[in-house]
Amino acid sequence: MAIDARGVELTYSDGTEAVKGVDIAIPEGEFFGFLGANGAGKTTTIKTLVTLLHPTGGSVTVNGFDVVSEQRSVRESIGYMAQETSVDPELTARENIRFACEAYGVPKADRSGRIDELLDLVDLADVADKTAKDFSGGMKKRLDVATVLVHRPPLVFLDEPTTGLDPKARNRLWDYFERINEEGTTVFLTTQYLEEADQLCDRISVIMDGRIEATGSPAELKSRVGGDVLDIELDDPDEPTVERAREVAESSELFDESATVSTTDEGISVTSASARRHGTDLLVALRDAGLTVVGFNVRSPTLDDVFLAITDADAGAETAGDEATETGGSGTSDDDATDAPPAETEVSR
Ligand SMILES: Nc1ncnc2c1ncn2[C@@H]1O[C@H](COP(=O)(O)OP(=O)(O)OP(=O)(O)O)[C@@H](O)[C@H]1O
User: Fold this and answer.
1) Which residues form ligand 1's pocket by a CB distance below 6 Å?
2) DSSP one-letter code for 40
3) pTM of the prediction?
4) 251-282 residue pLDDT tens
5) Which segment of 97-111, 207-221, 300-314 scores lowest on mean pLDDT?
6) Half-sphere exposure of residue 168, counting CA atoms within 13 Å on the CB side?
7) CATH for 226-300, among 3.30.420.10, 2.60.34.30, 3.40.50.970, 3.30.70.260?
8) ipTM at complex level
9) What CA–CA distance (Å, rounded) separates 211 from 213?
10) From ligand 1's centre to the CA of 41, what distance in Å?
């Protein structure tokens, strides 16, 4: 097992319960995605797994080593790409990787071969001797990836590695991650992007408010949505119009007991096992209710829908969102620079 985490809890010294009993079991070679909105607890969990924070409850082994009593062995056997870049802008790409080789104790005789190999892996060989300060965001991230691989760790942690990158740079990074995984490295990736998790991961856990709400392959999670999705675009989708459409949908034939309706910027989305069969009936019912449908589409669910389904289910279950206050001086954290997370998710439709 690459990671075996049981009942992990992490309460910061200001009382914020960021992780509330998380179980994660990741076999070797898996590409695992840890998905959640801002502030859900992804970084706190990852920092616990890489020994930067000590769990306040539960137990974790990484590559068979205990994260508390065998911290050093854990660190030697993993690569960790943090959200903040570790690239030194004053050094060249080659020097940055060489520096990482020294830091990780890569034997001198192996260094230059390893550096060339990694420059090739992330396509930076052409700019190997340019200083990193002139690199684009995507190039810096690629260099970051190379530096965490110098000691050939069997397991790498990537904490939101593509946040802030344009789609092209993001796609390119995905190729490298896939390549690393194909070569046998276990990957633990955190992301806010459902599309990213869908594309890359064998298995995904969704974390919300410090708890894992769902785990499975992208296909399994999508099948939990319980049907296909009918997106309906309304003319002038102000609040009363959308509410009326929701009422019509909820009293239509589509609406069996597992069906759900969510509101979107354009109108409503109905998820139902009979979305394909009875979709057009709903359109007629909406027209009869005096509503103008300007667009509709029936599609298979995406991970966005999974996320929404979980969020909807969760909203009733608990009083949501006691957003923690930042103290900036936590005794348990060795980096206190977490930005206050805005209360929004990256779920775009
Ligand atoms: N040093 C700290 N002291 C106190 N609370 C903290 C600290 N760091 C994070 N938190 C809080 O713990 C919770 C989980 O934060 P965490 O950074 O793990 O979430 P995340 O899912 O990684 O979010 P993001 O996408 O913003 O990185 C949040 O409520 C956050 O405000």
Assistant:
1) 12, 14, 16, 18, 36, 38-44, 192, 323-324, 327, 330, 333, 336, 338, 341
2) S
3) 0.79
4) 887 777 778 888 889 999 998 888 888 888 99
5) 300-314
6) 3
7) 3.30.70.260
8) 0.96
9) 6
10) 6
